[in-house]
Amino acid sequence: MDNLALMRLEFVDFRNYERFSLDDIGPLTVLVGPNAVGKTNVVEGVSLLTAQGSFRHPLMSQLVRQGATHARLKALVVSGSRRLDLDISIAEGKKVHRLNGKAKPASELRGLMPSVAFTPDDLFLAKKAGALRRRALDDLGSQLSANHYLIRRDYEKLLQHKNKALKEGADPLLVASLNEMLATVGSTLEAYRRALFSRLLAAMAERYAQLTGGHEALSGRYVPSWESSEEPTPADLPDRDEAKARFEKALERRLPEELRRGRSLVGPHADRVELFVAGLAVEDFASQGQQRSVVLAWKLAEVALVQEILHQQPILLLDDVMSELDAARRRALIDFLADDIQTFVTTTNLSYFDDDLLARARVVDLAASSPTSPSRPVAAKPAPESQETAEFHSSDV
């Protein structure tokens, strides 16, 4: 496996940074500093350059430093046989991606240098069964398959068009014609998601068993909105033509209700991803510790799938999650960190890490704007704390 590794980062007018650079990046980088200093902004920049998206799902305008007209992010990625310059320019609400100086659509860059992010908000993956799990599946699928990304994009455009038509009281014949296209694209997206979840769940169950010493079993199922949770889960993935036929019948059956309510009620945007521990729904019955183990198993399973499908080690981005995990789960996560998985960790407190881990880590003190190792310089010029605090309001996350 000829793994790519991130060697250099540079941000200009990105979030709270007028300029930030980090050279000679090794296997493990720990970014330490108080709240509102800009730790999450650094790992978000890495996510934009690798996953071609942010785990915060911000507006483009929020990525540009206040008072600046545009932002620039650069990364140098190398392996034994390749050297890649990744570049993102953000201005006027648009992003331009470049690879080795040539403009490229983001869809062509996804999966080139993948990353997996684990943030405190990911803990809601165990507490809520709706949009967060669907988004997590699609974000992973978009890195693993260009087709997944394109189908998801096409479905969201069609759904937006249909919802607008419903809201404006469009002719039922127009809505019916949109439903024909939705059935084709939606059933395809459902098939991609269901197949991906099947593989993810198998990896999750294995890692959950490891975390709990085999005392509890994790299971789950993907339930399209046109199926009932009460129906038995099929042993095999359904045929795509059969899934499309079921979707079409549901669209036809619920069309009068959609016309009356002015919004789309059936489709992948309303599918459910259900998880169970010992046969009980995680969001309703699992303890806080069980929920945290489920989420940790989910993120470790994402890493495993990237390795298995893309034959590339992803970059692991751990944003302030150590404070959210108890000692046992912190230990399990730290034990997972190996030299072949390049990792960035943000924290306010180095006491979460033992001396052995810190001895092999590059510790960057963002509050001091210099690392603990003077031989590996970092230049960081954060804006005043008031600006950083303003950018971390709830809509960013």
UniProtKB/TrEMBL annotation:
Xref: InterPro entries: DNA-binding_RecF, DNA-binding_RecF_CS, P-loop_NTPase, RecF/RecN/SMC_N, RecF_2
Binding-site residues, ATP: 33-40
Gene Ontology terms: cellular component: cytoplasm
An example Gene Ontology molecular-function term: ATP binding
Gene Ontology process terms (BP): DNA replication; DNA synthesis involved in DNA repair; double-strand break repair; SOS response
PROSITE patterns listed in its UniProt record: RECF_2
Pfam family, one: SMC_N
Localization annotation: Cytoplasm
The RecF/RecN/SMC N-terminal domain, residue ranges: 6-350
Keywords from the UniProt entry: ATP-binding, Cytoplasm, DNA damage, DNA repair, DNA replication, DNA-binding, Nucleotide-binding, SOS response
Record region (Disordered): 368-397
Family of the protein in this entry: Belongs to the RecF family.
NCBIfam families: recf
Protein name, entry field: DNA replication and repair protein RecF
Source organism: Xiamenia xianingshaonis
